[in-house]
Design goal:
Layout lengths: L6 H18 L9 H17 L3 E8 L4 E7 L12 H6 L5 H16 L10 E10 L5 E13 L5 E13 L10 E5 L4 H19 L2 H11 L4 H8 L3 H19 L6 H11 L6
Antiparallel strand pairs: 1-2, 1-5, 3-4, 3-6, 4-5
Helix pairs in contact: 4-5, 6-8, 6-9
């Protein structure tokens, strides 16, 4: 898994290099000039005083991926984050690939203008486990919003706020999934395109037989009906079920009760279609 790679190599491969060409085209901020931006940062510090449940927040310069402003509990991780990479350093390694899958699907559509909308009206939300300085992992809800854009609508600075939830453990799992909220009438269009992006990524993880089985489960077929329609033995069906559960755990870091349960989840979220 990518989580086993050295963090610097992982960061270059999945974050820095894929975004390099885009970041080189970012121009000066048009929305929020320097004075207005400093006023925004000052208000943000006061905002945290009013909402102490924010564990910490940071503003990232997307051109350099460096943290240029931050505030929060200084003892939470032992030191403040200096760059976007620092979040990866404390993220549970099993969650890095699922996190990047969601991030790429949303960011590719929103911030490369494949969907015509104002990036300032978009917020991205995801729960991930981060390791605090004591070595214990806690769930954190991360909210990402764009603060400044250039004249072409490309993001210049991004605000991330982190809310500390309960302690993470192997018995406190949830499917890794993100949500995108949009203050516009194009919400359904964007959500549908994100689901399509994720579906294409999921399809690459499964064989044709496994995808057939997911679709059959989602349509409500029984095991006997599936074996009869596909001419599979019980052993073959059991093997496909095991493969689906293994891949589901890798993709979502969650123990689904069964392959059928995973198929129902995929159908509910719109990742698979069936007649």
């Amino acid at each position: 898994m990518p989580g086993t790679l050295p963090i610097d190599e992982f960061y270059e491969q999945y974050v820095a290099k894929p975004s390099e060409a885009y970041r080189q085209t970012i121009g000066p901020a048009e929305h929020l000039d320097a004075v207005a931006f400093e006023q925004f940062v000052a208000r943000l510090k006061d905002f945290r005083k009013l909402y102490p449940n924010i564990a910490f927040w940071q503003i990232i310069d997307f051109k350099t991926l460096q943290v240029i402003h931050s505030d929060g509990d200084p003892d939470l991780f032992g030191r403040p984050f200096d760059s976007f990479k620092d979040v990866f350093r404390v993220m549970h390694p099993d969650y890095l690939l699922p996190y990047l899958r969601w991030r790429s699907a949303a960011f590719d559509l929103i911030y490369t203008q494949k969907v015509p909308l104002d990036p300032l009206n978009v917020a991205y939300r995801l729960s991930i486990p981060l390791k605090i300085r004591t070595g214990v992992y806690f769930w954190f809800t991360m909210n990402s919003t764009i603060v400044q854009i250039d004249s072409q609508g490309k993001m210049v600075t991004m605000l991330q706020t982190y809310y500390m939830e309960g302690r993470w453990s192997p018995r406190n799992l949830r499917p890794v999934e993100a949500s995108v909220s949009i203050r516009s009438v194009q919400h359904n269009e964007l959500e549908n395109q994100i689901i399509t992006q994720l579906s294409l990524q999921l399809i690459d993880e499964f064989t044709n037989a496994e995808l057939d089985l997911l679709t059959l489960y989602a349509s409500g077929k029984t095991n006997d009906e599936i074996q009869e329609s596909k001419s599979w033995s019980k052993h073959t069906l059991h093997e496909y079920n095991a493969n689906l559960l293994r891949k589901a755990k890798k993709l979502f870091v969650y123990d689904f009760r069964s392959a059928r349960n995973f198929a129902e989840y995929c159908a509910e979220k719109g990742y698979i279609k069936y007649n």
